[in-house]
Amino acid sequence: MDAKPKCILVSACLLGERCKYNGGHNYNQTLVDYVADKDVIAICPEVLAGLPTPREPVELVDGHVLDKMGNCYDDLFEKGIERCVNELAKKSIDLAILQSRSPSCGVNQIYDGNFSDKKVAGSGLFTQKLKKLGYLVLDVEDIKQLEGK
Questions:
Q1: Could you give the CA distance from residue 31 to residue 10 in angstroms, rounded to a whole number?
Q2: I want to staple 124 with a disulfide (CB 3.0 to 4.6 A). Which of 12, 72, 94, 104 is the partner?
Q3: With helix as H, strand as E and coil as C, how does the chain read?
Q4: N-term to C-term CA, the chain
C-alpha cells in the first residue's frame, strides 16, 4: 500500500485566493517563499461551507458563529470544517499554517465577538478541530520559527 503524500495545509487566503469575508485575501510572501518547494493544500473552510465571497463578517460569540445582527452560522461552519477534515483524511499533513484571527483559522487569537476589532486569546473552529485531531498548527504570523527548516 502506498504511503499518503506529505504536504502542508495552508489557508487559501494566504496564497492570494480572494476568499476573505470582504472579497479580499491575506497574501503572505514569507509563507509563499516557505512553501515554494513543498506540496501544499490550499483550503478555506468558509468557502467549502458554501458561504459566498464577499459575505457578512462573523465572530465567535460564546462558542457560536454569529454576524453583527445575531444570525447564527454554526451549521454552515461545521459543514465546511467537516468537508475540510474529509479532504485531509486522504493526505499526510506535516503542518497546517493558518490565517491569524479568523473565526475558522485563527490559531493564537480571535476577535472578541463584539465586532470592535478587539482581539482575545483563542482559536478558530477549524483550528480547534485540527488540534483535536492531532495536527500541528501554526499561525502564519509565527512562520519565522520555520526559517531554515
A1: 9
A2: 104
A3: CCCCCEEEEEEHHHHCCCCCCCCCCCCCHHHHHHHCCCCEEEECHHHHCCCCCCCCCEEEECCEEEECCCCECHHHHHHHHHHHHHHHCCCEEEEEEECCECCCCCCCEEECCCCCCCEEECCCHHHHHHHHCCCCEEEHHHHHHHCCC
A4: 29
Measured distance CA(124)–CA(144) in Å, rounded? 21
Report d(CA 137, CA 21) in Å as an integer.
22
* pLDDT, mean of residues 3-8: 70
**pLDDT score at 133:** 95
pLDDT, tens only, 9-43: 999 999 999 999 999 999 999 999 999 999 999 99
The pTM is what? 0.92
Rounded distance, CA 142 to CA 80, Å? 25
